Task: inverse folding
């Protein structure tokens, strides 16, 4: 990800009763270009990267275009460009336009903060449940990937994953520990890794918990999944 700080801004044109959302790098002259054409800066939000700024701008514009509210100022009157990002302030007051920017920025920040709770259910009668966290799954939230998951799938484990924020992941793991205490499942990750896997040392960092299941694995995994409190998706490898 590019580390160039970038503004998402809202400008307004009093004579045309127009508003505009756009992006400008921290050291660019984009906003000055608008000022020369009679536009005034309303507010600007500095984001840590160009990619984040583009995501926020894109989310706002999709919302405006879906409602038929974008492209208000004719292109001939936007010598500096950006006519498709303009709106009528009668239809979208500048405060509302800014609220759309703030809301989209919050969504992007939450997306960037996504960790992942990954559950591994060992097959083959070991009755072992392995649980860990991994980095974000990427753009596709339905097809997460991880090196640990790839390895465990090769060891005959079913792999399930859920995208959550880091805080949600910690809450989920606490709930799972509470479930283990209620069901008498024991937590001894080193011993279980050595018993169930050929190369356990590779996974001791990726996996944070391992439980010896008191019940048959399929039924115990079902109750553990409910206790976790987040929707899980099966992950396919290979």
Result:
């Amino acid at each position: 990800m590019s580390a160039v700080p970038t503004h998402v801004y809202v400008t307004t044109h009093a004579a045309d009763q127009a508003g505009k959302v756009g992006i400008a790098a921290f050291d660019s002259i984009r906003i000055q270009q608008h000022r020369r054409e009679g536009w005034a800066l309303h507010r600007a939000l500095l984001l840590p990267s160009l990619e984040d700024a583009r995501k926020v701008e894109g989310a706002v514009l999709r919302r405006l275009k879906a409602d038929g509210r974008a492209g208000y100022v004719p292109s001939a009157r936007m010598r500096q460009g950006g006519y498709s990002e303009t709106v009528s302030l009668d239809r979208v007051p500048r405060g509302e336009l800014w609220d759309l920017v703030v809301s989209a920025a919050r969504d992007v920040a939450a997306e960037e903060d996504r960790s992942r709770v990954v559950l591994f259910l060992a097959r083959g009668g070991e009755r072992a449940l392995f649980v860990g966290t991994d980095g974000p799954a990427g753009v596709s939230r339905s097809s997460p990937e991880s090196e640990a998951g790839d390895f465990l799938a090769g060891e005959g484990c079913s792999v399930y994953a859920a995208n959550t924020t880091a805080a949600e992941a910690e809450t989920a793991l606490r709930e799972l520990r509470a479930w283990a205490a209620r069901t008498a499942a024991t937590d001894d990750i080193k011993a279980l890794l050595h018993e169930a896997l050929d190369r356990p040392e590779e996974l001791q960092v990726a996996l944070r918990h391992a439980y010896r299941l008191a019940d048959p694995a399929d039924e115990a995994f079902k109750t553990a999944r409910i206790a976790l409190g987040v929707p899980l998706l099966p992950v396919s490898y290979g």
Q: What stands out?
A: Confidence is low (pLDDT under 50) at residues 136-145. Residues 38 and 223 are 63 Å apart (CA to CA).
